Amino acid sequence: MAVVYGINPVSEALKARRVSKLVHERGAGPRVDALVARAYELRLVVETVDRRALDRLARGGVHQGVAAELSPLPAYTVEELVSGATGAPLLVVLDGVEDPQNVGAILRSVDAAGADGVVRQARHAAPLAGATARASAGAVHHVKIATVVNIARTLEELEQLGVWTVGLAGDADEDYDAVDYTAPTAFVVGAEGTGLRRLVRERCDRLVRIPMAGMVSSLNVSVAAAVALFEAARQRRAARAADR
Known about the structure:
The protein is α/β, with parallel strands linked by helices. The protein has 2 domains: 2-70, CATH 3.30.1330.30; 78-243, SPOUT methyltransferase, trefoil knot domain (Alpha/beta knot, 3-Layer(aba) Sandwich). Helices cover 38% and strands 22% of the residues. The protein has helices at 7-15, 30-41, 51-57, 78-83, 100-113, 130-135, 151-160, 198-203, 221-243, and strands spanning 2-5, 19-25, 45-49, 66-70, 90-95, 117-121, 145-148, 164-168, 174-175, 185-190, 206-209. 43% of the residues are buried.
């Protein structure tokens, strides 16, 4: 059973019509009362519990007096992510990114940049509820997600679908902002510390780096993904403006 907790994550889940049951603590405040009222409007199951029960449901997370049980997320294939794009597809592929905070932040950036979806590996993947949903600020309910068995083979599939795969790597020779992202593009990002795995790295069409001007050698993976996504979004806005 997937569960989200906290006022904003539950609110986003209600907007996305993913809540099957809302659980709340009596007297949690007007913002929770508004969520309860909305749940009744949608004819959902609503349960009032004590704080200890909510603590257990949220597994110790900060729930603000409300949580929700969710219906399953829609399942997408990689081909559906590509074919469902409104323009040139823009995707993010997660290679071993397991930390819920990072996955949630990447989902939030994908949604904010107007990208078309995320590809993740089934094995060792962060659950898409709980801390991931909270870190995504609700984006997990709106971003299309394809779960695959093998990332390296998925990059080959993307190539067959006409999508360029661009790996983010600190030791790459090419700067990220020197590449044209107006074509169909999938950014491939690796786990903190280890980066892209060897076979995945070899399957990428090109590797780019984000130049670092300070003393630290790299960005957090979610920040790096956001930088790349918004560079692609900037280029695409400029291309559309030039075509007018």
